[in-house]
Design goal:
The protein folds into two domains: 202 residues, 3-Layer(aba) Sandwich (Rossmann fold), CATH 3.40.50.720; 95 residues, Alpha-Beta Complex (UDP-galactose 4-epimerase, domain 1), CATH 3.90.25.10. It has 335 residues and is of the alpha/beta class. The chain has twelve helices and 13 strands. The longest helix is centred in the N-terminal third of the chain and has 22 residues. The structure holds ligand G4F. The site of ligand G4F has 24 residues, from helix 5 and helix 8.
Length: 335
């Protein structure tokens, strides 16, 4: 039985990946912050249904000793390093903690693997945010990085660390350059979930408006459930490498808004207010990924495309807001 270690197992991607690996008969271990372990009802809602099947370890990206001892104890065959401060807006508010936590956390995990489990295959959650002010559209593995946020900068450093551990120490280390990926388990601070949650609240008379920033920004949005499969596929190849994972389509925030409100039978113009407070100091205007390398190398394809994704998320939030039991969003309070 293969052993996998997932940092950030309680996040959107970690929860889908854990389910995927359990189905493949992996022994699944996860690193979780102690504060989350102490409040499972609110903090572990995405993995509540599999807590009996996985092993969780208290650890923090800020503590090398905690990560070192988990790697030493678990001796994983595969490590998926997903944990990070991943909200771009927040990274402008507290640049230092985002940069310190994200860069050091990646460095600590890589170093612990090199010291205690050098045969372990390593996956780093790199990001399309690294392309930032992109030099070309669509972006592929050769597109130069021009990050536009402290978060993006921290991911470029994580990418370079991962590649360097591969080249310098022979670690099987891969970078997954994932474009935006969403689901009914997405955090409420990200624009897609903020929109679908608001649509549901408005539909049920719990809210009257939705305040948003830049509706013109364009993103390549895919489904997180499809993307975790690509993470695993990267680690099953003969050689470690870096891959773009995307849908190949780009859509504006405004299009997402229109589709989500339309799905609920609502006219978005009556509810959406543009609020400059949600604009960023530096914006990434357009992301669109060219995933042909992953497609050619291991036949990965996105299954859920934009329209289906918007409908899936809106429907899940409408059901949740109406009090119906939805396993994928279990027990998340309506904010
Ligand atoms: O949903 P977002 O906050 O995601 P963003 O910044 O693209 O980052 C996400 O994708 C990255 C991959 O490229 C990940 F690495 C990262 O961890 C995260 O998952 O914002 C999307 C767009 C932005 O252009 C933003 O300016 O939506 C725009 N936007 C407009 N109004 C808003 C809002 N974003 C948020 N969060 N809230 C708004 O009210």
């Amino acid at each position: 039985m293969k052993r996998a270690l997932i940092t950030g197992i309680d996040g959107q991607d970690g929860s889908y990946l854990a389910e995927f690996l359990l189905e493949k008969d992996y022994e699944v271990h996860g690193v979780i912050r102690r504060v989350a372990l102490e409040d499972p009802e609110h903090q572990l809602w995405r993995i509540k249904h599999i807590l009996g099947k996985i092993k969780v370890h208290a650890g923090s990206l800020e503590s090398y000793p905690s990560l070192f001892s988990i790697v030493e104890k678990v001796k994983p065959d595969e490590c998926y390093h997903l944990a990070a401060q991943s909200f771009v807006s927040y990274s402008f508010e507290d640049e230092f903690s985002t940069i310190n936590t994200n860069i050091n956390g990646t460095h600590y995990v890589l170093s612990a693997i090199k010291e205690r489990a050098p045969k372990c295959k390593f996956y780093f959650a790199a990001s399309s945010e690294m392309f930032g002010h992109a030099k070309e559209v669509p972006q592929n593995e050769d597109t130069p990085f021009h990050p536009r946020s402290p978060y993006g900068i921290s991911k470029v450093a994580g990418f370079d660390l991962t590649r360097n551990y591969r080249e310098a120490y022979g670690i099987f280390a891969c970078n997954g350059i994932l474009f935006n990926h969403e689901s009914p388990r997405r955090g409420f601070e990200f624009v897609t979930r903020k929109i679908t949650n608001a649509v549901a609240e408005i539909k049920h008379g719990l809210s009257k408006e939705l305040r948003l920033g830049n509706l013109d920004a364009k993103r390549d949005w895919g489904f997180a459930g499809d993307y975790v499969k690509a993470m695993w596929m990267m680690l099953q190849q003969d050689k470690p490498d870096d891959y773009v994972i995307a849908t190949g389509e780009t859509h504006s925030v405004g299009e997402f808004v229109e589709l989500a409100f339309g799905y609920a039978g609502l006219d978005w113009k009556k509810f959406v207010i543009i609020d400059k407070n949600f604009y960023r100091p530096a914006e990434v205007n357009i992301l669109q990924g060219d995933y042909s390398k992953a497609q050619n190398k291991f036949r990965w394809e996105p299954v859920v495309k934009f329209k289906k994704l918007v409908e899936m998320m809106t429907e899940a939030d409408i059901k949740r807001a109406s009090g119906k039991n939805n396993p994928s969003t279990c027990n998340v309070p309506v904010k």
